[in-house]
Amino acid sequence: MADERWLVAGLGNPGPRYAGNRHNAGFMVADLLAARMGSGFRRDRSRTQAGSGRLAGLPVIVAKPMSFMNLSGGPLAALSSFYKIPPDRMVVLHDELDLAFGTIRLKLGGGDNGHNGLRSVTSALGTRDYYRVRVGIGRPAGRQDPADFVLTDFSAAERKELPLVTELAADAVETLLRSGLAAAQNQIHPNSAASG
Q1: Which end of the chain is more exposed for a tag (fewer CB within 10 A), N or C?
Q2: Residue 193 falls within a domain, yes or no?
Q3: Catalytic residue among 23, 94, 115, 189
Q4: Number of domains in the chain
Q5: Domain contains 46
Q6: Is-contact 135 164, C-beta < 8 A?
């Protein structure tokens, strides 16, 4: 069991222009997990920034693809191939329009729900059967195009809550690694563990 390394990947867009965007919620959680491991990120051959250490007592690589959201899959597939990590030991952290801001949900497999980062990961891995930690960003008010909305920064009110949201998502990852999906779902969304 000791060599059962996990890959935890945050999705987002690289560069300062996108750093505070809603679409970068996955990067924000990945940054926190790397800090918890006491690991910095270094550029990897696979076009990711990656750090390694231990979470929940297990060896983990935390990664952020540097290829822009819509092309996230290639770098993650290369990284998982290099370290021989199968999809059932991969956790993808991503923003989710269909969840209210601050809501965290976990699931294994499923569709991409219009999320281009997930579509890219699923295509590159050749399977949907990897874990997802979904960070709710809500839907835009009015008629704003969701594709534009995800590239806007969190509001001032949301930014105040964001540290708590990223802590909850990071806790969800650690619980998933330590205790499995059902236990993590029960802890993070106790009233709706059966719902995706």
Answers
A1: N
A2: no
A3: 23
A4: 1
A5: yes
A6: no
Instruction: List all residues 6 or more positions away from 17 whose beta carbon is below 8 Å from its beta carbon.
Output: none
- pLDDT (tens digit per residue) in 50-63: 999 999 999 999 99
Q: What are the φ and ψ backbone dihedral angles of 104, each rounded to 5 degrees?
A: -115, 130
For residue 78, what is the domain's CATH number? 3.40.50.1470
pLDDT digits (tens, 9 = 90+) for 151-164: 999 999 999 999 99
Asked whether residue 97 carries a pLDDT value surpassing 60, the answer given is: yes
pTM here is 0.93
Cα–Cα dist 115/118, whole Å: 5
Q: Which domain does 27 fall in, by range?
A: 6-188
Strand arrangement, sheet containing 131-136: 42-43, 48-55, 58-65, 6-10, 90-96, 131-136, 104-108
**DSSP character string of 37-68:** HT---EE-TTSEEEEEEEETTEEEEEEEESS-
- Catalytic residue at 189? no
Is there a contact between 29 and 37 (Cβ–Cβ < 8 Å)?
no
Angle subtended at Cα 78 by Cα 75 and Cα 106, rounded to the nearest 5 degrees = 70
